[in-house]
Amino acid sequence: MANLAKSSESSEWNVQVNTGSGSSNIQLRDPLAALAELVSDDENDEPAKIIAWYLENHASEPFEKSKAESAKRLISAYGCNLASQIAETGLVPQDGYVQLHVVTAGSGEGENKEGGLSIQHLLWEVLEDPEVWSKTERRPQSVSVVRSLQSVTGVEAGCPPTTVLAEHRDGLDGKRFNILLVVSRPCPEKDVDYQLVANALMSVIDQLPPQLDGQTTLTILRPPTWQAFQDHLQEHPHFYDLVHFDMKGAIPPVAGRPTAVLEFCQPGKQNPLRLRPDYRTGDLVGKELAVAGANTVVLNACDSASFRHASSGSNLAEVLLGHGVQSVVAMAYKVVEESVEIFMGSFYRSLLAHGMTVTDAARTARSELLRNQSRRAHYMLTVQLADYIVPVVYVSSIATDANTVSPEKVPFASVRRTLESIKQAVPSHRLSAKAKTHRPRLLSGRDCDIVKLETLLPVARLVFLHGQGGIGKTELLRYLCRWWKSSGWIDTAVYIDFDDLNSEKTETYRSMSDVVASIAEQLHLPPDERSEKDIIRRLQRGKYLLVFDSADVFEDPITGRGRDAMTEPLKAFIRATAKGQSMVIVASRLDTTSIADIPFPHHNYPLSGLSVINSVSLLQNLSCPSVNELPDTFYRRGNIDSLRRAAIVLEGNPAAIRLVAPELKSVNYDGEKFFSTMFYGVFKGLSAGQGGPSDSRFAKSLNQALCSTSFIDTRKTLIKASQFAPFFNVMPKDLTIYYWFLYLSVSRYFTEGNFEHWISE
User: Fold this and answer.
1) pTM of the model
2) Which residues 6+ apart lie within 8 Å of 74 measured at CB?
3) pLDDT of residue 171
4) Which parts of the sequence belong to the CHAT domain (predicted)?
5) Which residue among 53, 208, 313, 609 has its CA within the 20 to 30 Å range from the CA of 558?
6) Are strands 296-299 and 242-246 parallel, antiparallel or unpaired?
7) Cα separation, 685 vs 510, whole angstroms
């Protein structure tokens, strides 16, 4: 455990290897120097750049198969070279369990005093693949890698860096386990899924065994601004054991030197929906964490443990260690979404449910990436990525008796039941003490809308959500009620749906007293606190979400009949509620409403259709749930382009996509034939009435219009509601206009006067 050795070349280091059975000094050579001969003349690139391309860009360039195969050979050769150098010491146990500590002196620096790179920049995690040891005389059964920095204080200068084959005794020794998750997406349209980590983490917490239930708390910081982060840690000093930053990282030049930063959010002054990046250096973040007393930090930010910039402050993980953080899990390269999902799910399952240390949990998660190398790629393809070497673990120090521990007797997964020591339950009123709840099913394609609403609601308190029929307003709102409650942002959600056509409903709202009674019931209020004034007072003081769905019924001459008397009282109720701590969402198919005052433009939130990529993904999942059943022709570029054009025509409307999804299967997933049928053919499933979701509000609304008694012999039109795929941007106030649209084209009694009347309507 000493300072970096002096070396004439930056690609060689004097390294001391220590185990319980002995010690040895070796001249460690950078494996990259021996890989140049494996690169073909056609590639004309350095091995390090080929490996970086493979890990970071192959998923977005899946057709570069030969280059990817070359990168995999380089990684394998790299691991074999490094393993053989370590095995030459004779200290590697045969069939033993090894935890390899890479120890250098430093204080957040990625370089030595001569300006050369430290041994930390080597891809040590590649040694966890058993295949790289296959050519060595002594082959360990399992290897776990952890990196460590020793303070320069008290270290004898000139001593070599240390590689220790032993067990590291880290872990969270506190009597509680509290997690703070900071999710920042200032540009959600161009970023990864907003709930990528949150869903994986909440899934693990929901599945904890009964004896651990309620002993883990998860708090998601909202809004994810730098000021909110500072205030929250100051309000809860020494409360959090682990802080997870789910946000982008970067290494821009600051004062002329590459400096690691994290990307927080900053709402626009004029429009809070216009989020802007707010970069904060690792030093600033580390200082806040030091004051808060956080022991462990997890970073899925790209390049958060990068050594490509040999500069002090460019490695975020090392910077945080320099501020007193005990353990840091970070990424050495840019990482793809699916890898984050796999790694974090396994990491938190091992840490929380199995009680492993941070280092052992990370080792288990890396082995999961090693076993499962299939990753989603662009063009709806999959690629094989050996990206288990991307997540790395840093610890601030190693147990003083590490050198006396025999590696032959120490299993790498020395499970320390961390959570069994959590005896003091966190008070339920502090943050989100997690009882067993049902985690909401992930809602695909709405991450941008969720992050924007989470940014807007704390400022506006009242939001008017509107969009065309079938666009997914109700599904999104129901999901938000469950998600925000399960993630601890709100205490309870109250959902009022004015739609009389909803088959799941057991109540109707014809007066203000009906609304008040339903709210009281959903809040589980005692009989003496169910007056309208008592409810408003409670809503103003607590953190609740009120949703008023299907507000367009008040604007319709048919469905709004009899509700005129409750419009003004309802508006006053919403106005009073929005003045307190609770939040209100009013949803409608129309872009105006009579039940709420919408004072500013940014209180309006138009819900658009799904993106083209999400639309194609939904179309694929609905037509063929199993990817294995898809023919190879499905993944051709021309086929994917045809499906994307179809998604554009469908305007990303989930109801429309559900209606036409069976047709894609009937044409054997031929995108060009499917697209042609949309314009020139007939969807047989729709004609037979088999394609539409009959229980959707859209279909029922059309059925009601078609069955209206004011029209002549509607049964003879032979028109089904499923044929009205919602491809329209504007939903008419009077739903019967949909009937006129078709009726005029088939009726032999049509006259010009009727047509003029219909146009005027």
Assistant:
1) 0.76
2) 35, 38, 39, 47, 50, 51
3) 39
4) 218-376
5) 609
6) parallel
7) 38
